[in-house]
Protein backbone atom coordinates (compact mmCIF):
# COMPACT_ATOMS: atom_id res chain seq x y z
CA UNK A 1 0.00 0.00 0.00
CA UNK A 2 1.26 3.47 -0.83
CA UNK A 3 2.02 5.46 2.30
CA UNK A 4 2.14 9.23 2.65
CA UNK A 5 5.37 11.01 3.32
CA UNK A 6 7.83 8.40 2.00
CA UNK A 7 10.04 9.49 -0.89
CA UNK A 8 9.49 7.82 -4.21
CA UNK A 9 8.17 8.21 -7.72
CA UNK A 10 4.43 7.65 -8.02
CA UNK A 11 3.39 6.47 -11.48
CA UNK A 12 -0.29 7.05 -12.20
CA UNK A 13 -1.30 4.92 -15.17
CA UNK A 14 -5.01 5.52 -14.78
CA UNK A 15 -6.28 8.64 -13.03
CA UNK A 16 -7.32 12.19 -13.67
CA UNK A 17 -3.94 13.17 -15.13
CA UNK A 18 -1.69 10.14 -15.74
CA UNK A 19 1.99 10.76 -15.16
CA UNK A 20 4.80 10.57 -12.62
CA UNK A 21 4.50 12.42 -9.31
CA UNK A 22 6.97 12.91 -6.49
CA UNK A 23 4.62 13.03 -3.51
CA UNK A 24 1.80 10.83 -2.28
CA UNK A 25 -0.46 13.86 -1.94
CA UNK A 26 -0.11 14.59 -5.65
CA UNK A 27 -0.66 10.93 -6.53
CA UNK A 28 -3.73 10.82 -4.32
CA UNK A 29 -5.08 13.97 -5.94
CA UNK A 30 -5.09 12.16 -9.29
CA UNK A 31 -6.54 8.84 -8.03
CA UNK A 32 -8.82 9.52 -5.06
CA UNK A 33 -12.40 8.77 -6.08
CA UNK A 34 -11.38 7.87 -9.63
CA UNK A 35 -13.02 4.58 -10.58
CA UNK A 36 -10.52 1.94 -11.72
CA UNK A 37 -7.47 4.01 -10.78
CA UNK A 38 -4.13 2.33 -11.31
CA UNK A 39 -0.90 3.58 -9.75
CA UNK A 40 2.33 2.27 -8.32
CA UNK A 41 5.25 3.62 -6.32
CA UNK A 42 8.84 3.15 -7.54
CA UNK A 43 12.30 3.95 -6.23
CA UNK A 44 13.49 5.51 -9.49
CA UNK A 45 12.09 7.75 -12.19
CA UNK A 46 13.05 5.31 -14.94
CA UNK A 47 11.07 2.50 -13.30
CA UNK A 48 8.05 4.77 -13.00
CA UNK A 49 8.27 5.81 -16.65
CA UNK A 50 8.63 2.16 -17.72
CA UNK A 51 5.46 1.33 -15.78
CA UNK A 52 3.57 4.04 -17.65
CA UNK A 53 4.93 2.82 -20.98
CA UNK A 54 3.78 -0.72 -20.21
CA UNK A 55 0.29 0.64 -19.54
CA UNK A 56 0.18 2.62 -22.76
CA UNK A 57 0.74 6.05 -21.25
CA UNK A 58 3.09 8.28 -23.31
CA UNK A 59 5.77 9.59 -20.94
CA UNK A 60 6.72 12.61 -23.04
CA UNK A 61 9.47 14.94 -21.88
CA UNK A 62 10.23 15.62 -18.23
CA UNK A 63 9.87 19.22 -17.11
CA UNK A 64 13.29 20.82 -17.44
CA UNK A 65 12.95 22.53 -14.06
CA UNK A 66 12.66 19.23 -12.21
CA UNK A 67 15.36 16.96 -10.90
CA UNK A 68 14.75 14.46 -13.64
CA UNK A 69 18.22 13.03 -13.56
CA UNK A 70 18.17 12.31 -9.85
CA UNK A 71 17.07 9.02 -8.35
CA UNK A 72 15.95 10.82 -5.19
CA UNK A 73 12.75 12.78 -5.75
CA UNK A 74 11.99 16.24 -4.44
CA UNK A 75 9.23 16.31 -1.87
CA UNK A 76 7.46 19.21 -3.51
CA UNK A 77 8.08 19.10 -7.26
CA UNK A 78 6.09 17.22 -9.84
CA UNK A 79 8.53 15.79 -12.32
CA UNK A 80 6.07 14.94 -15.00
CA UNK A 81 2.40 15.30 -15.74
CA UNK A 82 0.49 12.91 -17.95
CA UNK A 83 0.39 13.67 -21.62
CA UNK A 84 -2.70 15.59 -22.68
CA UNK A 85 -2.27 14.07 -26.14
CA UNK A 86 -3.56 10.86 -24.69
CA UNK A 87 -7.17 9.73 -24.70
CA UNK A 88 -9.62 11.13 -22.22
CA UNK A 89 -8.26 10.95 -18.69
CA UNK A 90 -11.73 10.76 -17.14
CA UNK A 91 -12.75 7.46 -18.63
CA UNK A 92 -15.14 6.66 -15.77
CA UNK A 93 -17.32 8.52 -13.37
CA UNK A 94 -15.89 8.94 -9.86
CA UNK A 95 -16.72 6.35 -7.23
CA UNK A 96 -20.12 6.97 -5.62
CA UNK A 97 -20.80 5.94 -2.04
CA UNK A 98 -24.18 4.25 -1.77
CA UNK A 99 -24.56 5.55 1.79
CA UNK A 100 -23.41 9.18 2.00
CA UNK A 101 -22.14 10.39 5.40
CA UNK A 102 -24.93 12.07 7.30
CA UNK A 103 -22.81 15.01 8.41
CA UNK A 104 -21.75 15.99 4.90
CA UNK A 105 -23.92 17.57 2.22
CA UNK A 106 -23.17 18.49 -1.37
CA UNK A 107 -23.17 22.12 -0.25
CA UNK A 108 -20.45 21.35 2.33
CA UNK A 109 -18.43 19.55 -0.32
CA UNK A 110 -18.66 22.51 -2.65
CA UNK A 111 -17.55 24.91 0.06
CA UNK A 112 -14.44 22.86 0.85
CA UNK A 113 -13.51 22.55 -2.82
CA UNK A 114 -14.25 19.39 -4.75
CA UNK A 115 -11.59 16.72 -4.23
CA UNK A 116 -11.86 16.00 -7.93
CA UNK A 117 -10.44 19.42 -8.69
CA UNK A 118 -6.91 18.06 -8.80
CA UNK A 119 -7.46 16.49 -12.21
CA UNK A 120 -6.73 20.13 -13.26
CA UNK A 121 -5.81 19.32 -16.80
CA UNK A 122 -2.30 20.42 -16.12
CA UNK A 123 0.00 18.18 -18.15
CA UNK A 124 3.42 19.78 -18.29
CA UNK A 125 4.12 18.78 -21.90
CA UNK A 126 3.50 21.28 -24.64
CA UNK A 127 0.87 20.24 -27.15
CA UNK A 128 2.87 20.00 -30.35
CA UNK A 129 0.03 18.97 -32.64
CA UNK A 130 -2.90 21.28 -31.97
CA UNK A 131 -5.08 19.88 -34.72
CA UNK A 132 -8.26 18.57 -33.18
CA UNK A 133 -8.02 21.06 -30.30
CA UNK A 134 -9.93 24.27 -29.77
CA UNK A 135 -7.20 26.78 -28.89
CA UNK A 136 -7.84 29.94 -26.90
CA UNK A 137 -5.63 32.47 -25.11
CA UNK A 138 -6.45 34.10 -21.80
CA UNK A 139 -4.77 37.00 -20.03
CA UNK A 140 -5.21 39.53 -17.26
CA UNK A 141 -3.85 43.05 -17.02
CA UNK A 142 -3.57 45.38 -14.05
CA UNK A 143 -2.35 48.95 -14.05
CA UNK A 144 -0.83 49.86 -10.71
CA UNK A 145 -0.91 46.26 -9.48
CA UNK A 146 -0.59 46.11 -5.70
CA UNK A 147 -1.21 49.83 -5.29
CA UNK A 148 -4.22 51.87 -4.26
CA UNK A 149 -6.33 52.77 -7.27
CA UNK A 150 -5.21 49.86 -9.42
CA UNK A 151 -7.45 48.87 -12.31
CA UNK A 152 -7.57 45.39 -13.86
CA UNK A 153 -9.03 43.87 -16.99
CA UNK A 154 -9.77 40.39 -18.32
CA UNK A 155 -8.97 39.26 -21.85
CA UNK A 156 -9.84 36.20 -23.93
CA UNK A 157 -8.66 35.85 -27.53
CA UNK A 158 -9.76 33.25 -30.05
CA UNK A 159 -8.65 34.99 -33.21
CA UNK A 160 -8.74 38.22 -35.17
CA UNK A 161 -12.23 39.76 -35.07
CA UNK A 162 -13.62 36.60 -33.47
CA UNK A 163 -17.01 37.17 -31.85
CA UNK A 164 -15.93 35.02 -28.91
CA UNK A 165 -13.14 37.41 -27.91
CA UNK A 166 -13.68 38.99 -24.49
CA UNK A 167 -12.58 42.32 -23.02
CA UNK A 168 -14.07 42.92 -19.58
CA UNK A 169 -13.30 44.79 -16.41
CA UNK A 170 -12.10 42.52 -13.62
CA UNK A 171 -14.90 42.32 -11.04
CA UNK A 172 -14.18 43.00 -7.38
CA UNK A 173 -10.55 43.33 -6.24
CA UNK A 174 -8.21 44.78 -8.84
CA UNK A 175 -5.10 42.60 -8.99
CA UNK A 176 -3.25 40.91 -11.80
CA UNK A 177 -3.55 37.43 -10.31
CA UNK A 178 -7.31 37.74 -9.96
CA UNK A 179 -7.63 39.00 -13.53
CA UNK A 180 -5.58 36.05 -14.80
CA UNK A 181 -7.76 33.53 -12.95
CA UNK A 182 -11.00 35.20 -14.02
CA UNK A 183 -9.87 35.19 -17.64
CA UNK A 184 -9.70 31.37 -17.49
CA UNK A 185 -13.06 31.33 -15.72
CA UNK A 186 -14.58 33.38 -18.52
CA UNK A 187 -13.24 30.93 -21.10
CA UNK A 188 -14.96 28.06 -19.33
CA UNK A 189 -18.16 30.01 -18.72
CA UNK A 190 -18.56 31.08 -22.35
CA UNK A 191 -17.25 28.09 -24.30
CA UNK A 192 -19.92 25.51 -25.24
CA UNK A 193 -19.66 22.14 -23.52
CA UNK A 194 -18.52 19.62 -26.11
CA UNK A 195 -16.28 16.56 -26.31
CA UNK A 196 -13.74 18.49 -28.38
CA UNK A 197 -10.55 19.03 -26.33
CA UNK A 198 -9.87 22.60 -25.22
CA UNK A 199 -6.37 24.08 -25.03
CA UNK A 200 -6.15 27.23 -22.89
CA UNK A 201 -2.89 29.13 -23.19
CA UNK A 202 -1.94 31.54 -20.41
CA UNK A 203 1.17 33.41 -19.35
CA UNK A 204 0.10 33.18 -15.70
CA UNK A 205 2.43 30.92 -13.76
CA UNK A 206 0.35 31.74 -10.69
CA UNK A 207 -2.84 30.33 -12.21
CA UNK A 208 -1.16 27.11 -13.27
CA UNK A 209 0.69 26.72 -9.95
CA UNK A 210 -2.61 26.98 -8.07
CA UNK A 211 -3.63 23.63 -9.53
CA UNK A 212 -0.33 21.97 -10.34
CA UNK A 213 1.47 22.53 -7.05
CA UNK A 214 -0.64 24.06 -4.30
CA UNK A 215 -4.13 22.57 -4.52
CA UNK A 216 -3.41 19.24 -2.75
CA UNK A 217 -2.07 21.08 0.30
CA UNK A 218 -4.89 23.61 0.26
CA UNK A 219 -7.48 20.85 0.26
CA UNK A 220 -5.85 19.16 3.24
CA UNK A 221 -5.59 22.49 5.11
CA UNK A 222 -9.11 23.68 4.29
CA UNK A 223 -7.69 26.38 2.03
CA UNK A 224 -5.34 27.83 4.61
CA UNK A 225 -1.63 28.51 4.26
CA UNK A 226 1.07 26.93 6.41
CA UNK A 227 0.78 29.95 8.71
CA UNK A 228 -2.94 29.42 9.10
CA UNK A 229 -4.00 32.37 6.98
CA UNK A 230 -6.80 31.95 4.42
CA UNK A 231 -5.54 31.34 0.88
CA UNK A 232 -5.91 34.47 -1.23
CA UNK A 233 -8.61 34.23 -3.88
CA UNK A 234 -9.82 30.91 -2.42
CA UNK A 235 -13.51 31.28 -3.42
CA UNK A 236 -12.50 32.22 -6.96
CA UNK A 237 -10.03 29.33 -7.19
CA UNK A 238 -12.61 26.85 -5.91
CA UNK A 239 -15.12 28.06 -8.48
CA UNK A 240 -12.57 27.67 -11.28
CA UNK A 241 -11.81 24.22 -9.93
CA UNK A 242 -15.52 23.34 -10.06
CA UNK A 243 -15.71 24.48 -13.69
CA UNK A 244 -12.74 22.29 -14.59
CA UNK A 245 -14.28 19.35 -12.72
CA UNK A 246 -17.55 19.71 -14.57
CA UNK A 247 -15.83 19.58 -17.95
CA UNK A 248 -13.85 16.51 -16.89
CA UNK A 249 -16.97 14.73 -15.69
CA UNK A 250 -18.57 15.41 -19.06
CA UNK A 251 -15.61 13.84 -20.84
CA UNK A 252 -13.88 16.92 -22.20
CA UNK A 253 -10.10 17.16 -22.07
CA UNK A 254 -8.82 20.57 -21.00
CA UNK A 255 -5.16 21.49 -21.05
CA UNK A 256 -3.79 24.62 -19.36
CA UNK A 257 -0.52 25.48 -21.06
CA UNK A 258 1.99 28.12 -20.08
CA UNK A 259 3.13 30.51 -22.78
CA UNK A 260 5.74 33.20 -22.30
CA UNK A 261 4.13 36.62 -22.21
CA UNK A 262 5.10 39.49 -24.50
CA UNK A 263 7.21 37.21 -26.65
CA UNK A 264 5.54 37.87 -29.96
CA UNK A 265 2.85 35.18 -29.81
CA UNK A 266 -0.14 36.52 -31.68
CA UNK A 267 -2.67 34.90 -29.40
CA UNK A 268 -1.01 36.07 -26.20
CA UNK A 269 -0.61 39.57 -27.54
CA UNK A 270 -4.26 39.54 -28.60
CA UNK A 271 -5.44 38.42 -25.14
CA UNK A 272 -3.23 41.03 -23.51
CA UNK A 273 -4.75 43.74 -25.70
CA UNK A 274 -8.24 42.56 -24.77
CA UNK A 275 -7.35 42.64 -21.08
CA UNK A 276 -5.99 46.17 -21.36
CA UNK A 277 -9.18 47.27 -23.09
CA UNK A 278 -11.15 45.64 -20.27
CA UNK A 279 -9.21 47.64 -17.68
CA UNK A 280 -10.57 50.86 -19.19
CA UNK A 281 -14.21 49.81 -18.75
CA UNK A 282 -16.40 50.81 -15.77
CA UNK A 283 -15.82 48.96 -12.51
CA UNK A 284 -17.77 45.76 -11.83
CA UNK A 285 -18.91 44.45 -8.42
CA UNK A 286 -17.48 41.27 -7.00
CA UNK A 287 -19.25 38.10 -8.06
CA UNK A 288 -20.55 35.56 -5.57
CA UNK A 289 -17.96 32.86 -6.25
CA UNK A 290 -19.23 30.62 -3.46
CA UNK A 291 -22.75 30.54 -4.87
CA UNK A 292 -21.47 29.99 -8.39
CA UNK A 293 -19.24 27.15 -7.20
CA UNK A 294 -22.05 25.46 -5.30
CA UNK A 295 -24.35 25.69 -8.32
CA UNK A 296 -21.68 24.22 -10.61
CA UNK A 297 -20.88 21.45 -8.16
CA UNK A 298 -24.56 20.57 -7.78
CA UNK A 299 -25.00 20.56 -11.55
CA UNK A 300 -22.13 18.12 -11.99
CA UNK A 301 -23.31 15.79 -9.25
CA UNK A 302 -26.85 15.80 -10.58
CA UNK A 303 -25.47 14.67 -13.93
CA UNK A 304 -23.48 11.88 -12.29
CA UNK A 305 -26.51 10.73 -10.34
CA UNK A 306 -28.70 10.65 -13.43
CA UNK A 307 -26.03 8.81 -15.42
CA UNK A 308 -25.49 6.19 -12.73
CA UNK A 309 -29.22 5.71 -12.31
CA UNK A 310 -29.68 5.15 -16.03
CA UNK A 311 -26.84 2.64 -16.19
CA UNK A 312 -28.19 0.72 -13.21
CA UNK A 313 -31.68 0.61 -14.71
CA UNK A 314 -33.25 1.54 -11.36
CA UNK A 315 -36.57 3.25 -10.74
CA UNK A 316 -36.69 7.03 -10.74
CA UNK A 317 -35.39 8.65 -7.55
CA UNK A 318 -37.29 11.20 -5.54
CA UNK A 319 -35.77 14.67 -5.13
CA UNK A 320 -34.66 13.87 -1.58
CA UNK A 321 -33.08 10.60 -2.67
CA UNK A 322 -31.34 12.32 -5.54
CA UNK A 323 -29.92 14.97 -3.21
CA UNK A 324 -28.70 12.29 -0.82
CA UNK A 325 -27.11 10.43 -3.72
CA UNK A 326 -25.40 13.56 -5.00
CA UNK A 327 -24.06 14.26 -1.52
CA UNK A 328 -22.30 10.91 -1.59
CA UNK A 329 -20.39 11.57 -4.79
CA UNK A 330 -16.74 12.39 -4.39
CA UNK A 331 -13.63 11.31 -2.55
CA UNK A 332 -13.42 8.54 0.04
CA UNK A 333 -10.00 8.50 1.65
CA UNK A 334 -10.58 5.27 3.54
CA UNK A 335 -11.69 3.47 0.42
CA UNK A 336 -8.66 4.79 -1.46
CA UNK A 337 -6.28 3.55 1.24
CA UNK A 338 -7.88 0.11 1.11
CA UNK A 339 -7.74 -0.13 -2.67
CA UNK A 340 -4.36 1.52 -3.29
CA UNK A 341 -1.86 -1.03 -4.51
CA UNK A 342 1.87 -0.47 -3.91
UniProtKB/TrEMBL annotation:
Catalytic activity from the UniProt record: Endonucleolytic cleavage to 5'-phosphomonoester
Database matches in SUPFAM superfamilies: L9 N-domain-like (SSF55658), Ribonuclease H-like (SSF53098)
PANTHER family per record: RIBONUCLEASE H1 (PTHR10642)
Domain RNase H type-1: 130-280
Annotated function: Endonuclease that specifically degrades the RNA of RNA-DNA hybrids.
Pfam families xrefs: Cauli_VI (PF01693), RNase_H (PF00075)
EC number: 3.1.26.4
Polar residues bias locations: 104-117
Region of interest: Disordered: 56-117
Protein name per Swiss-Prot or TrEMBL: Ribonuclease H
Cofactor names: Mg(2+)
Organism: Trametes versicolor (strain FP-101664)
Key words, A-Z: Endonuclease, Hydrolase, Magnesium, Metal-binding, Nuclease
Top-rank taxon, per record: Eukaryota
Family assignment from sequence similarity: Belongs to the RNase H family.
Composition bias type Low complexity, residue spans: 64-76
InterPro entries the UniProt entry points to: Ribosomal_bL9/RNase_H1_N (IPR009027), RNase_H (IPR050092), RNase_H1_euk (IPR017067), RNase_H1_N (IPR011320), RNase_H1_N_sf (IPR037056), RNaseH-like_sf (IPR012337), RNaseH_domain (IPR002156), RNaseH_sf (IPR036397)
GO MF entry, a single one: magnesium ion binding
GO BP term (any one): DNA replication, removal of RNA primer
